[in-house]
Amino acid sequence: MAVRPSRPSGQPQSSKVSQFKLVLLGETSVGKSSLLLQFVKGQYQDFGESTIGAAFLTQMVSVDSAMVKFEIWDTAGQERYHSLAPMYYRGAQAAIVVYDITNTETFVRAKAWVSELQKQASTNMVIALAGNKADWSANRAVEYTDGQGYAADNSLLFMETSAKTAMNVNNLFLAIAKKLPKSEPLGGVAGSAGVRGGPPVDLRQPTQTSPAQCCGN
């Protein structure tokens, strides 16, 4: 029996659903969980607990005439959980490596994650680099051109984001979805049963959101 996903009101029906595993990586407190919450539920929390091990959510997005289902693993950034990371990025078709633009060390750590993915993960993985907390640009420690240049040198997607204002959050996932092959069958990933996702997101019209000078995770 075919599974027909729900979709935004008024959007054309599409029988094609592509499913992909995506992993979020980065140092603790760079805002990985906040980016995920903003993308899946359109919410932001000023104070959130650190992820322990990993968290899992799903989200359906619409790209042109296709539906893409992201199965997203949000990994813990603490060093003691580093050894668990391969369990989550193994078999993933996409990864978002996140750093905090106000913290140079998190950018250095993001580069280490990219290097690890390039050596250990699938050669076909779509990797995106996200400079988060763009709403704190007044306290910037990592220049936009530094992130952009590193991404260009390593064939990565790159955007600066703000989980607080939603700046580029949807656009980042849209860019990833556009680069993924739309040929994966709708199927299960271990641990996905019963996990809550948000309402489908129509990414055909990118959100235009200007950053504010405030805190963001």
Automatic annotation (TrEMBL):
<feature type="compositionally biased region" description="Polar residues">
    <location>
        <begin position="205"/>
        <end position="217"/>
    </location>
</feature>
<dbReference type="InterPro" id="IPR005225">
    <property type="entry name" value="Small_GTP-bd"/>
</dbReference>
<comment type="similarity">
    <text>Belongs to the small GTPase superfamily. Rab family.</text>
</comment>
<protein>
    <submittedName>
        <fullName>Ras-related protein Rab-5B-like</fullName>
    </submittedName>
</protein>
<dbReference type="Pfam" id="PF00071">
    <property type="entry name" value="Ras"/>
</dbReference>
<keyword id="KW-0547">Nucleotide-binding</keyword>
<keyword id="KW-0342">GTP-binding</keyword>
<dbReference type="InterPro" id="IPR001806">
    <property type="entry name" value="Small_GTPase"/>
</dbReference>
<feature type="region of interest" description="Disordered">
    <location>
        <begin position="191"/>
        <end position="217"/>
    </location>
</feature>
<dbReference type="GO" id="GO:0003924">
    <property type="term" value="F:GTPase activity"/>
</dbReference>
<dbReference type="GO" id="GO:0005525">
    <property type="term" value="F:GTP binding"/>
</dbReference>
<dbReference type="InterPro" id="IPR027417">
    <property type="entry name" value="P-loop_NTPase"/>
</dbReference>
